[in-house]
Design goal:
The complex is a heterodimer. By secondary structure, chain A is mainly alpha-helical. Chain A is built from nine helices and no strands. Classes of the chains: A mainly alpha, B mainly alpha.
Chain lengths: ~210, ~200
């Protein structure tokens, strides 16, 4: 019911990406790069690298692997920029490449060990909190990341694009090359699994064995 | 007892249901505490998901990534095949033109000094343009020259230096490996025609 392999995704065909907004700011940079301005690619990276790093990390669940994936994605984007059709949303085209790179790396690497309970404190955690709150926050993060890693690859990609990257169901479907109804099924299953994972871990331990 | 809508709740929490489905779920939630509880749990887990998956990268990580990528791209730019292809035709044409000019200058210089050993084969039978068309520029009239088949891949240059001495253009021919392509170079040295100022003509 929920395909977990890319082969199943490819069977459903890869629809074309939707039309880009009338004044896609990235398209201007793409034209300059195509005209031979290599430095314009640096400007393109400056606008997209944060999103690409986050996307790769959310799919792969590993910081160093995500950096490698982002680097490989940008290189593939540069080498195949002539195949990009002007008028399409550039960022969606780039995200499609990034998802493919992440899947390639994920296949080569194999399953990652589940994350440790202690996680790094992020820059966004500037809000003051006491030690107990900080511990709870770290536990929640570890739990959610374990839940995400337990998902099949296709469900994880759909959940990341739909709920974390802010793409609509139709956009996520075009990026992943599947039908919208497939995305709907995948995100529904993924949300239910994450919620069940959290509930199971948060339940107080039951009494001893009968 | 109403049938539960647990299967639809994961879509309901993010607004992925159609209007009809959403209305049905709303009606059920109004009367079902169990599904209300499940809805709250789903909302909580979705909030935790967004909280937990905030990316752990800062500006220094992005700078490092950009440097690595740009270093590799700058190394790749000179080897891009599109650029190499763009330069080739111009480079080739320049080489051929230089070769032709150098050959002509070298042969003329030696001829003035007293002659050179005849490196080229003897002139082939030619059909000279009849002198009945003197008004046409010699570069366009040219001379019809019979050519012999040459070995494949070896250019066969021919020159008509005698013609140059008679005021006619020097003609150099190269037969390429392709029998249908022949490179012909015409040159003529003569003084500029004397022109009279237009003012005098009017007067």
């Amino acid at each position: 019911m929920f395909p977990g392999s890319e082969a199943v995704l490819m069977e459903e065909g890869i629809p074309t990406l939707p039309a880009a907004p009338a004044n896609d700011p990235l398209e201007h940079l793409v034209r300059r790069i195509r005209a031979g301005e290599g430095e314009a690619f640096e400007a393109l990276m400056a606008r997209t690298e944060a999103r690409l790093l986050a996307l790769a990390w959310r799919i792969l669940g590993d910081r160093h692997l995500a950096e490698d994936a982002a680097q490989e994605t940008f290189l593939r984007v540069f080498r195949s920029l002539n195949t990009f059709r002007l008028g399409e949303p550039f960022e969606a085209w780039m995200v499609r490449i990034a998802v493919n790179v992440c899947h390639d790396l994920s296949r080569k690497r194999g399953p990652l060990p589940l994350p440790m309970e202690t996680l790094e404190i992020l820059e966004g955690d500037a809000a003051p909190m006491n030690a107990e709150e900080a511990v709870l926050l770290q536990q929640r993060r570890a739990m959610i990341q374990r839940a995400l890693r337990s998902l099949p690859q296709a469900e994880r990609a759909a959940l990341v694009l739909r709920d974390l990257e802010g793409f609509s169901t139709e956009e996520a479907a075009r990026i992943l090359g599947v039908r919208p109804v497939t995305i709907r099924s995948q995100v529904s299953s993924a949300r239910a699994k994450v919620q069940a994972f959290c509930s199971r871990l948060l339940q107080p331990p039951q009494g001893g064995r009968p | 007892m109403t049938s539960h809508v647990l299967d639809l709740l994961p879509l309901w929490v993010e607004g992925d249901l159609t209007a009809t489905e959403r209305a049905a779920v709303d009606r059920h939630l109004a009367v079902c505490p169990a599904c209300q509880s499940a809805t709250e749990q789903l909302k909580t887990s979705q909030a935790w998901l967004r909280e937990a998956m905030a990316a752990p990268f800062d500006a220094s990580d992005q700078d490092r990534l950009r440097r690595r990528v740009m270093d590799q791209i700058r190394a790749e730019i000179p080897a891009k095949p599109i650029r190499r292809l763009a330069v080739r035709p111009a480079l080739l044409a320049a080489c051929v033109a230089s070769l032709l000019v150098a050959t002509l200058v070298w042969r003329r210089g030696h001829e003035v000094e007293g002659g050179i050993p005849q490196l080229m084969p003897p002139p082939l039978p030619e059909v000279v343009q009849p002198p009945s068309a003197p008004d046409l520029p010699s570069s366009t009239v040219g001379r019809q020259t019979a050519s012999l088949p040459h070995p494949r891949g070896r250019p066969a240059p021919r020159q008509d230096l005698e013609a140059s001495a008679q005021g006619e253009p020097t003609r150099i021919e190269f037969q390429t490996a392709n029998p249908t392509i022949r490179i012909i170079w015409l040159a003529q040295s003569k003084s500029l025609p004397e022109t009279t100022p237009s003012i005098e003509e009017k007067s």
